[in-house]
Amino acid sequence: MTNTNGKGKVIAIDGPAGSGKSTVARALAQRMGFDYLDTGALYRAAALKLVSAGVSEDSGDDAVLCSVLRGTTIEFKQGMVYLDNKDVSEEIRTPEVGHFSSVFSARKPVRDFLLDIQRNVGGTNGSGGIVAEGRDMATVVFPEAWRKFYITADEQTRAQRRYAQLRKKNADVTLSTAQSDVASRDDRDTKRSIAPLAKAPGAIEIDTTNLSIEETLERIMRELY
């Protein structure tokens, strides 16, 4: 573990699905001695709540989303995700919840609901630093982050990584399905009207297509100091 004197520092990592940002962010947080914030898990938890309440993905009524989310609690503690005080860490990792997470993340009530939660998770207001990864960490959630990175890879590589990830969880998925999933997420993430996926000004872009996790991590460490 690196002694970084990282009080209050935020490392923001954005990137598309399958780029490797989650794995890299977790490894970086461990090496730095920082807290880790998986914002995708928070969006999955919100999606799980909405779906469980019967909200359809094509519901155009923002008032319905606000009503369901009002009073909802979502917490990310020590790598575990709690929805209304229930551990849903495994439940949110299904392809179905992932799909709804991508869909509902484009809705303003969902993004507004999760904004303060994201900013208050982990060490952002405490004694340590935080590695936050997602789609809009450096552009919206932590625009004043100490360091900003944009992790990407070509679409084929990201689809293969997504396929391997789902197969590891015994999900019934084909490479073609994974490719379609990645393409759909890219389309939603980059074209949504609210906080679209984009490289933040000043962010360092790292293409991981031909890089291992360790090589990516070493590249980030060189940029930090």
List keywords for this structure.
alpha/beta; Rossmann fold; three-stranded antiparallel beta sheet; 8 strands; 47% helix
Protein described:
The protein contains 9 helices and 8 strands. With 225 residues, it is of the alpha/beta class. It has one domain: P-loop containing nucleotide triphosphate hydrolases (Rossmann fold, 3-Layer(aba) Sandwich), CATH 3.40.50.300. The strands form 2 sheets. A 5-stranded parallel beta sheet has the order 2-6-1-7-8. Strands 3-4-5 form a 3-stranded antiparallel beta sheet, covered by helices on one side. Helix 7 crosses helix 8.
Structure described in brief:
The protein has 225 residues and is of the alpha/beta class.
Task: Break the fold down into its secondary structure elements and pairings.
Blueprint: E1 10-14, H1 21-32, E2 35-38, H2 39-52, H3 62-69, E3 74-77, E4 80-83, E5 86-87, H4 95-104, H5 108-120, E6 130-134, H6 137-141, E7 147-152, H7 155-168, H8 175-191, E8 204-207, H9 213-224
Parallel strand pairs: 1-6, 1-7, 2-6, 7-8
Antiparallel strand pairs: 3-4, 4-5
Helix pairs in contact: 1-9, 2-4, 2-5, 3-5, 7-8
